[in-house]
TrEMBL record:
Species of the source: Slackia isoflavoniconvertens
The protein's name in its UniProt record: SAM-dependent MTase RsmB/NOP-type domain-containing protein
Disordered: annotated segments: 1-288
GO biological process, one term: regulation of DNA-templated transcription
CDD domains (alphabetical): AdoMet_MTases (cd02440)
Lineage: Bacteria, Bacillati, Actinomycetota, Coriobacteriia, Eggerthellales
Amino acid sequence: MAYDNKGAGDSRGNRPSNNRGGNGHGNGGYHGKGGNSRGRGNGDKGGFRGSKGQGGYKKRDGERKFDRDDNRGGYKGGKPQGGYKGRGDRDDRGEGRKFDRDNRGPKRDFKRDDNRGGYKKHDGERKFDRDGDRGGYKGGRDFDRKPRGDRRDGDRDFKKGGYKKDFSRDERKFEQGERKFDRDGRKFDRDDRGSKRERSFDGDRRDDRRFDKRDGGKFEGRGDRRFDDRPKKRFDDDKRGFKPRRDDDRSDAQVDDDAPRSEYREHRRKGEGYRGTGGGYRKPKGQVHVTPARQAACAIGRVVRERNAYVAEVTPAVLAKFQGISPEDAAFATKIARGVTATVGTLDEFINRNMKTPNDIDEVVRDAMRVSAYELLFLDKPAYVVVDQGVELVCSVAPKAGGLANAVLRRMSESAKTFPFGNPNLSLQVLARSQAFPMWLAKRLMNEMTLPKATAFMHACNTDAPVFIAVNSVKGDFEQIEEAFDQAGSLLEPSEDVQGCYRVKESRSLRSADVRALFEAGELLVSDEGAQTVAQLAMPAEEPASFLEIGSGRGTKTILLQSAAHRAFGHCVPMTSVDDHEFKGKILGERCAAYGIDTVEPLTADARTLSQKLPEASFDAVLLDAPCSGVGTLRRHPEIRWRLKPEDITSMASINLDLLIEATKMVKPGGVITYATCTVFPEENEQVVERFLKTKFGEQFEIEEQVQTTLTTNGPDAHYAARLRRRA
């Protein structure tokens, strides 16, 4: 192969040598130690990946390796001219090849120890100097093209074949004459930029930047631009719309218990939660967003269950632990707690229907679920609110039970749509379930009242009890009391049967400062009209010299009796009040003093053996406030409904008969005794009196008067009283 050496070849393949000779265009093979032999060779056919004959491979030791028998050019010759991957004639390429796997010789190491140039040559580092001539890596350049001068990095072709337009943009015409790529006409050529230390950025740096290193880190504000000046388009986005500023205090806004999404916007503004990529609200782990009212209701229910206590007794103490709870939340918590206690049996049945293993949940979790179940079945609350708050409430008492609560509450919300699971007019069981009454109690009420009356009674037991007040005639002035309620926005409806008894039409007026002052002064007390009816009946028309009260409790009827005496006789009467609990006697004494009554003597004794404490036939009038099932006061004492057992009624009736016999021993000849209960069952009322009259002691007495109030929606509770007079 002949060479016309017009330029010296670099041994490392960095500079091409313009070696011309032979026929046919082609590029030399791999760049070897002696340089790149580029030029015209005597190839017979187009070489590998060539269209025209390519130059041969420069051999060192005679035999060319990787040569083919068709005298084609070297391996990976120059760039193809006739299209991509032009291979020429490929027939019979297997003959004469020395590419047998068994005869390939020793394995060549990655650094190419065959003295060839190229990548990572052992005797020197390959250089990619952009300013010099490049070596022949993957063949030389195509010299048929027009020389372009010094090549820049961005000027190389994207493809191996085909003509590509020159990337150089120096010949383009611009409107302002000189080519410019930046603000102040700075040249774009990389070689003309100079070193980084010599460059200056003063020309293209904006003057309104907030932070400048050249000023020593001085921070400069952005002027008067505010958060609200951003484009309004962002605020119209549903997912990434306008959010209130975190320092925007809206704590005075009214909170709706039925809308948890609006209740806790303040928490979200204060950073207690964050928004994920989907735009939904995610609460931080371990934090719950449940209303204080529901938390308080759950706490009351737990205390009632654990202590077997009464709701009215524990509610004030539990609410006191929730500091800052509003009066509205306190009222709502009391309503839920009373409702849950009154319907607990039906709620548990409903919860169990929606669980596979209802016995596996903890009692505290069940307490929380009862609150949600009560809202679903007996309160007009949206299902999504109940489910959301129910899950939060369960998480507040048992964080690990949140998943269970979510699944169960969702099933409960769907199941509640078909409650009570039948027609109440066709099934007594469905009727009992719809009114949240035990089956045995509903059946007994129906048998003793008839079905329509029993249904009305059960419905009234599930309503809010009306508020009745009694005016203490010892200290109270009715005109002043009426004026205070008028200013509070409530009218007083007087009772038709009881003097000094009024129904408060607007119970919220009881929170008025003037009205509360009347209670604190002992001029008023809250008492049901039925209880006032019993007290009025028990005080005889003639003034008694001595009065005995059995079962005084905390003194409500004691005050009613003395008020009736003061109204009838102008002063209080001497009274002995008996109870079997000493602490109740202390409370009674304190209350009597607050109401201006100083003629009452508390006594702690067992009423079944009262004759051992007091002389017989020593009182002109006796009131036996007998213990009973309390069915007539279910709406005021909701815990009775599901604690009461069928045998308790018979047991109470037997005990009351013994108490009545013992109490009659205390009555003087010609005196009176009043037997009173707060139940609706004749077995505890009329039948006890009838049984007493048939006894040896009962032969001396006769019924003088009986009263029985009926529990209605806006009326009094169900009370029974019979006044008997002893023959002289």
